[in-house]
User: Which sequence fits this backbone?
């Protein structure tokens, strides 16, 4: 009887704490602190970065079989802890930079363009 309870408790403990790899999040190569939403994959060689006197300009695309509301919901939760503040639909600001997300759907796949530009002063 005690052994059955111990096994049940051990099972519940293991089920409650999945491996760290199951919780991992990937990040864009062009925007190192920008997480890639679940269901999206960074498009190879799509990242472009320019350093200007006014700040950096970065553009990168991600593709996936995911719906726009799911992507918006992910970034609405993921970006504020990273310092990004929403200031409109698909637009965020942080430390003198503006991030915009643009969506294009076609052929059953969603393309999301992420663009970071300096905020004009």
Assistant:
């Amino acid at each position: 009887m005690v052994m059955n309870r111990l096994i049940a408790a051990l099972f519940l403990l293991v089920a409650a704490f999945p491996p760290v790899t199951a919780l991992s999040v990937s990040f864009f190569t062009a925007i190192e602190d920008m997480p890639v939403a679940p269901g999206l994959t960074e498009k190879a060689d799509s990242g472009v970065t320019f350093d200007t006197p006014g700040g950096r300009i970065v553009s990168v695309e991600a593709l996936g079989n995911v719906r726009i509301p799911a992507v918006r919901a992910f970034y609405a939760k993921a970006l504020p802890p990273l310092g990004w503040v929403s200031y409109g639909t698909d637009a965020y600001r942080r430390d003198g930079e503006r991030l915009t997300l643009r969506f294009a759907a076609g052929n059953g796949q969603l393309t999301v363009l992420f663009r970071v530009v300096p905020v004009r002063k």
